[in-house]
Amino acid sequence: MRRLLIAVLLAQLLFAYADPPLEEVGAHNSGAAAGLLNYSDPYVPELTRFEPAHVNMSTATPWPAVGGRVPSNFTEVYWAWAEEYLDGNVVRWTTDRGCEREVRMTLMGRNSSVEYYNVFQGQNRSAGIGMDEQPLPVLFAYAELDNSTGNDTIEFMLEWEFEYLYWMEVLKWQDEENCVNGSCDCVDAFHSDEMVSITVGGRDTKEYFVDAGVPEFMVVKPLLGEQWHMNNRFDCLVFSKRKAYYGETFLGGNSSAEARIYNFSIMEDALGVWHIEAEEVSNFSNMSFAEEDGGVYSPVPLLQENESFAFAYLSYFAYRGVGRHNLTVGVKDWYGNGFNHTEEILSRKLSHSGEYGEDGLPVSGSGNYRPSYSAPDVELGRVLIPSNILAVLIVLASVSIFWARKRRG
């Protein structure tokens, strides 16, 4: 039965999710959070007279978090700590020359101090925390974190210092005498009991990218909202400060195309904490969707305010039909939030003299045909072209003929 449970757990952890498994991972980590406080550290070194205590702390994970990123509205941080120390234990050791010593370490007092830091865009904030506090708060407000470009990070740091006061009772103490050529005699000696103070400290730092803001949508084709019906396109550029994994296009309110560029999986660390990891994929159905993350994008001419975006997404969609259509492009970020943009696009046929369409049917005032331009009848007259301009025209024509022939040949 135990093997079956382990197999089921491994299958779940290795399974690829089409959508980020936020609910499953959130429920697991919430249930495991209390056990992270004063957990049993399997990597504790041997405790000695000189190092009678061991303390370890770490930021387990902020939540929600996906692939080393957090949204600007995340609210909590799980942490973990472990502590081991001697109390009433008998400790034995030998000197470099082989003399034996033995003491009993009895804990008389213990003081602890833990400081918690958040660092974002050059600002450093700190708070003292209790050893039973779980989860930890986020020290920056949502409005502050929402200024991230998507390339900004928030750093979590834990600093700790523990002081242990021991009464060291000497049970056996040998000193070195008559040392010759590195060899000594070990003789029993008197060493008084004493109070010993030991300090143990450390630091843990982790960093996550902050996703923020609302994406900006730009229709690239058709740029002016109208196009020829034989080349119907709905191509969009999305500037974003947050990672997206899914794109979808709607035609007339109906889902007509979709694309996924990331799948997700669950990984478990040594503390038993689950993490969501992202993996690039290319699953397209009737549309193309691509991520460009070459740096920071600042589409100044397109936006009223000067903003910077870490990511740009390109969406391509082709369709059929004549007349007015409502088209919507939507994206989902790594936390399941959806954003979309709708445009009304007019697709027209061509017409001749405003009377007949390219299909040979009468236009009859229909808006589905693009009006044509009728040139007025005019009498052609003589036009005098200066010789220098004529020479330039002849040269240009000759070059054009040359390149045309070269391409054919």
Topology at a glance:
Blueprint: H1 2-14, H2 22-32, E1 53-63, E2 69-71, E3 76-85, E4 89-94, E5 100-120, E6 123-128, E7 136-137, H3 142-145, E8 153-180, E9 183-188, E10 194-211, E11 216-221, E12 226-228, E13 235-240, E14 244-251, E15 254-268, E16 274-285, E17 288-292, E18 311-316, E19 323-333, E20 338-352, E21 356-357, E22 369-370, H4 387-408
Parallel strand pairs: 2-10, 12-20, 20-22
Antiparallel strand pairs: 1-3, 3-7, 4-5, 5-6, 5-8, 8-9, 8-10, 11-13, 13-18, 14-15, 14-19, 15-16, 17-18, 19-20, 20-21
Could you give a short description of this structure?
The protein is built from 4 helices and 22 strands.
Provide an overview of this structure:
The chain is mainly β. Helix content is 12%, strand content 49%. It has helices spanning 2-14, 22-32, 142-145, 387-408, and strands at 53-63, 69-71, 76-85, 89-94, 100-120, 123-128, 136-137, 153-180, 183-188, 194-211, 216-221, 226-228, 235-240, 244-251, 254-268, 274-285, 288-292, 311-316, 323-333, 338-352, 356-357, 369-370. Strands 12, 14, 15, 16, 19, 20, 21 and 22 form an 8-stranded mixed sheet that branches. Strands 2, 4, 5, 6, 8, 9 and 10 form a 7-stranded mixed sheet that branches. A 4-stranded antiparallel sheet has the order 11-13-18-17, with no helix packed on it. β19 (323-333) and β20 (338-352) form a beta hairpin.
